[in-house]
Design brief:
The chain has an eleven-stranded mixed β-sheet with strand order 1-9-18-17-16-15-14-13-10-11-12, sandwiched between helices. Helix 3 runs parallel beside helix 4, helix 10 runs parallel beside helix 11 and helix 17 crosses helix 18. Strand 2, helix 3 and strand 3 form a beta-alpha-beta unit. The radius of gyration is 26 Å and the shape is elongated. With 519 residues, it is an alpha/beta fold. The structure holds ligand NPW and potassium ion. Its cofactor is K(+); Mg(2+).
């Protein structure tokens, strides 16, 4: 896993390193621009012959613009014809950006013109499409939405150019949240080149869709060891290797016994999906607890999975006298209401690992605090989708939903971290960008975008399978944050392994192949 640093964390780190005297801001800017130039060469080998190539570099009023001037200089040195446009007054640029602006403009007979940003659209109309456009208008210093003329210049250049590149992050996107500040510009570039670490905004919200490729350039800043305030990205190509390995000598009870509670007749499919997922991911035994009326329906559709009758919370208490049940899953298809609330309370009082999903969450919509009082400090994972999250944490959901006029905007990381602290247990908020937070502040992000895109995962029952994966891993003894993280990664991996046509039943069946590939 790697760290995701916010704009503020990057600034603090950069200032500390510069303050320590080992490097100057100007040197970092040179490395950043060189990194962008190198990444362009690697990503677009068809541009290696600079002869006759035209680039348009859009520079902003801060250090992101300074990086743009470095890129302009390197492209021109390589033989490109380069036009540079600047938003704002050159006299107001910060020192390092001003130095690179001055170097670009040059002196004497070799002086170059810098256009203003409002000359960009007429330039493209006159000259035709450039081979390359570089967006160096705003990076981590974006504080408010883009004005209409900036959006227009960006849109026309990005849509016209054969290749488009954003320096650090596409202008208009908040680096901390991935949200568009102000009105959404909904632009996409071919490549984004960022520095030192990726930023949350490259993965969250619109940020996951705003670039087709992301390259992280090492600019020589020292790597910091992970701190609790850093969000970690679940990104390793073989993340769940340790999950794939099972102790060959282990007894089936050594891998835990998962209990999945089912809804009544006609509503048992979700629990069966979760149970199958728990078994496939390595729980030694899995039992479905069914209300008596659904016993036949479940019995005729299971083989390795066992069944026990549980009419109510009292019956659940009796079942849980068997201490070998190590993890429980409540929610998929369970029904909303008092019966589910009492089953949840019984499960939580038994002191096992518990996954609460779907109806088990919605059942507490009227009084979320009564749920939080019961889960606080226990090995519990809540796995809401956006709607369920809004029922339990309406104020946080509202903050996340609100249009952000100023930056940095409230991010999914911020709200899930706050939710986990409030609930006192691990919270996994599902989505194309999944954020998992532990109550101690640790946060993991997984985004099914770019090389991990899994559009087929938006299918009925996929969430039940995810709940089953988390349950199975907790049954095996993984702590909540680890179980939730591995389950999330493997869930996407299964969808990607199966591909188009995926339905939820296919996810547990794709898992053996995925695990085998990890060994
Ligand atoms: N940190 C590092 O380690 C390194 C950082 N590097 C580079 O520096 C970049 C960060 O630079 P940065 O801090 O100068 O911010 P940046 O995004 O250029 O813009 C700030 C300017 O924009 C203005 N402004 C903001 N929003 C606006 C709006 N909507 N419309 C109009 N104006 C707006 C804002 O004005 P103000 O809000 O103060 O009025 C201010 O003038 C970073 O992304 C990376 O590329 C690398 O060189 C090497 C290592
Ligand atoms: K940019």
């Amino acid at each position: 896993m790697s760290n995701l640093m916010t704009g503020g964390q990057m600034r603090t780190h950069e200032q500390a390193v510069i303050g320590g005297g080992s490097v100057t801001g100007l040197a970092l800017m040179q490395r950043a621009g060189q990194g962008v130039f190198d990444a362009i060469s690697q990503a677009f080998p068809e541009l290696s012959d600079a002869c006759g190539r035209r680039a348009l570099i859009l520079c902003g009023p801060g250090n992101n613009g300074g990086d743009g001037f470095v890129v302009a200089h390197l492209l021109a040195a390589a033989g490109w014809a380069v036009d540079v446009a600047l938003l704002g007054e050159a006299g107001h640029l910060p020192p390092d950006a001003a130095a690179n602006h001055a170097r670009w403009v040059g002196t004497g007979a070799k002086r170059r013109d810098v256009l203003s940003l409002d000359q960009v659209v007429p330039l493209i109309a006159a000259q035709g499409a450039p081979d390359l456009v570089v967006d160096a208008v705003f990076g981590t210093g974006l504080r408010r939405g883009l004005s209409a003329d900036v959006v227009e210049a960006l849109r026309v250049s990005i849509e016209a150019a054969r290749h488009s590149v954003a320096v650090d992050i596409l202008s208009g996107l908040c680096a901390d949240s991935g949200k568009w500040l102000g009105q959404a510009a909904d632009l996409t570039v071919d490549l984004t080149v960022t520095f030192h670490t990726a930023k949350p905004g490259h993965y969250l919200a619109a940020g996951g869709r705003a670039t087709r490729r992301l390259v992280i350039v090492d600019i020589g800043l020292p790597v910091q060891s992970a701190r609790i305030e850093d969000a970690e990205l679940i990104d390793a190509p073989a993340y769940s290797g340790e999950v794939a390995r099972k102790d060959p000598a282990s007894h089936k009870y050594g891998s835990g016994h998962a209990l999945v509670l089912s809804g009544g007749p006609g509503r048992t499919g979700a629990a069966r999906l979760a149970a199958r997922a728990a078994l496939r991911i390595g729980a030694g035994l899995v039992t479905i607890a069914v209300p008596p009326g659904a016993q036949q329906e479940v019995a005729c559709q299971i083989t390795a999975i066992m069944l026990t009758r549980v009419a109510d919370s009292e019956a659940l208490g009796v079942v849980l006298e068997d201490k070998r049940y190590s993890a429980l899953c409540l929610g998929p298809g369970l029904g909303v209401g008092e019966r589910t609330r009492s089953l949840v309370s019984e499960a939580l009082s038994a002191g096992r690992s518990v996954v609460l999903d779907a109806d088990a969450l919605t059942s507490f919509a009227d009084d979320p605090m009564s749920l939080f009082e019961q889960v606080r400090g226990a090995d519990v994972v809540l796995t809401p989708h956006g709607g369920e999250f809004a029922r339990l944490f309406p104020d946080l959901a509202e903050q996340l939903r609100a249009v952000a006029e100023t930056g940095p905007a409230v991010s999914k990381i911020d709200v899930v971290r706050a939710a986990a602290a409030r609930a006192g247990c691990t919270v996994l908020l599902k989505g194309a960008d999944t954020v998992i937070a532990a109550p101690d502040g640790r946060v993991r992000v997984h985004a099914a975008c770019r090389e991990r895109a899994a559009p087929w995962l938006a299918t009925a029952g996929a969430g039940d399978v995810l709940a089953g994966f988390v349950t199975g891993l907790m049954a095996r003894g993984l702590e909540p944050l680890e179980a939730a993280s591995h389950a999330t990664w493997l869930h996407v991996e299964c969808a990607r392994a199966f591909g188009p046509g995926l339905i939820a039943e296919d996810l547990p069946e794709a898992l053996p192949g995925v695990l085998k590939a990890l060994l």
